[in-house]
Amino acid sequence: MHHCRVPGCTAPSSRWGTLCSTHKSRQRRHGHPMQDGVTKAELAPYRAIIRQRKANNPNSPFWPSIEARWNALVDHCRGVVAAYLNGRAMNRNERQACQEVVKLAEHVEAGEVVETALALYLMHEQAPRRFLSDDAFRHQLSRRLRGLADVNAGTWYDHTTGKLKRVYRDLPATSAVVMGAMLAETFGVAGLLLARREEEDAEKRRRENEELAQAVKDLK
Questions:
Q1: What is the DSSP string of 56-67?
Q2: For residue 55, what is the enclosing H or E element?
Q3: pLDDT, tens digit (0-9, with 9 covering 90-100), for 117-150
Q4: Got the DSSP string for 16-42?
Q5: Regarding predicted confidence, which is higher, 112 or 151?
Q6: So where are the chain's domains?
């Protein structure tokens, strides 16, 4: 009997694969067999940083320009969906990804989409070990953005706790990769530049604090 290839896992692998059922499911849902999903609570402090940055720079052309990039992606995806509805043959994964983008645009304000996407890039820059591969990051990007739309959520009753629990419907893995690639192309450059600016400002604050501490130390 062969065991799962994930280090430390002793569960048997599937008949035709190298992963156990648990890690195979995680690979499909999160883009890597050892990747955990990014939670709303985890992302909250990074979203707060983005909101503060926007509040400090309300008239910057950065914000409308990144929203324009999002709107351009939405327009492209609407065209793809319209072509599909008119009978044009196309790649199923691209079509599903575009349908999800359109659904997101119809149920969530552009500003919230932008804030969430930029927060994920900031998280990636400040906590890079949280994402185990590029595919894993793109899966989380698509999952967290899809999670903004209530239409993507369902509920189930947990008999153990006696409460309703919320669960999000997953995209097929390949469609999630396609959607993640679309989102990365839309937000990637802006997200990385903003994350690096945040790091530069944090480094500046650290230097100022060190200089202040030294000045206090030198007092007679």
A1: H-TT-THHHHHH
A2: helix 40-56
A3: 999 999 999 999 999 999 999 999 999 999 998 7
A4: TSSS-HHHHHHHHHHSSTTPPPPPHHH
A5: 112
A6: 1-34, 37-217
Alpha carbons 15 and 195: distance in angstroms, whole number? 43
The average confidence (pLDDT) of the chain is 89
Output the six-digit token pair for 218. Answer: 């030198």
Amino acid at residue number 165: K
Instruction: Report residue 88: phi and psi, to 5°.
Output: -75, 135
DSSP H/E element including 164: strand 163-168
Dist. CA 80–CA 95, nearest whole Å: 7
Dist. CA 150–CA 215, nearest whole Å:
53
Query: Which H or E run contains 153?
Result: strand 153-158
Query: What pTM was estimated for this model as a whole?
Result: 0.83
Predicted local distance difference test score (pLDDT) of residue 138: 93
Contact status, residue 97 vs residue 125, Cβ threshold 8 Å: no
Comparing C-alpha atoms, which of 52, 53, 26 is closest to residue 37?
26
pLDDT tens, residue by residue, 143-187: 999 999 876 655 555 667 766 666 667 788 899 999 999 999 999
Q: Tell me how crowded residue 138 is: count the other CB atoms within 10 A of its CB.
A: 23
Which phi and psi (to 5°) does residue 87 adopt?
Answer: 100, 5
